[in-house]
Design a protein that fits this description.
Blueprint lengths: L1 H9 L2 H91 L1 H38 L12 E3 L13 E3 L1
Antiparallel strand pairs: 1-2
């Protein structure tokens, strides 16, 4: 450092000013380059910040939509659970009503009446089938005409309505 001071002392003031000015200009030029780089970096960061802000807005919008869809789905799920509970309670009420009806006097009465009607219908069906078989077999045993009494009347099976109160006979002479 003493050499620099000696050299400065030997220089003329004019040269000393120009040297200082040159140093200042170099510094100014470097500062200007630094400022330009800083502006360039700032512009890049601004673009990047704007891009990130746009992406953030999109994500917030998507998040809001997803939250709304989730809330709607939860509401539908609650409605479905409510409907399932209602259906279950209706089914239970129907089962209770059917059980009460099964145990009631009316049901026992209906069962008894149905049993009677089924027996009568079954008996009439049996009577009808036996009548058909007899009417088919009759000519084989007694000939075309009635075998008893030698009458001219043909005995045949006449169909009738199935009524348990009917007093009509299965066979009649026509």
């Amino acid at each position: 450092m003493p050499k620099v001071v000696d050299r400065m002392a030997n220089l003329e003031p004019r040269l000393l000013i120009w040297g200082s000015l040159r140093t200042l200009l170099k510094s100014g030029h470097q500062m200007l380059a630094h400022i330009k780089r800083a502006h360039h970096l700032e512009a890049k960061k601004t673009v990047e910040i704007r891009s990130l802000q746009g992406a953030l807005r999109k994500e917030e919008f998507i998040s809001t939509k997803l939250k709304a869809a989730l809330a709607l789905e939860e509401e539908r799920k609650k409605e479905g659970e409510l409907e399932a509970r209602m259906a279950k309670s209706i089914l239970e009420a129907m089962i209770r009503a059917v059980e009460e009806f099964k145990a009631s006097f009316e049901m026992r009465n209906l069962n008894f009446e149905f049993g009677q009607q089924a027996f009568i219908k079954g008996f009439e069906l049996f009577e009808h089938q036996v009548g058909l078989k007899i009417s088919r077999a009759w000519p084989k045993f007694f000939g075309r005409r009635g075998g008893y009494g030698g009458g001219s009347q043909t005995i045949r099976y006449c169909s009738r309505s199935f009524s348990h109160r009917s007093d009509r006979r299965t066979f009649q002479t026509c």
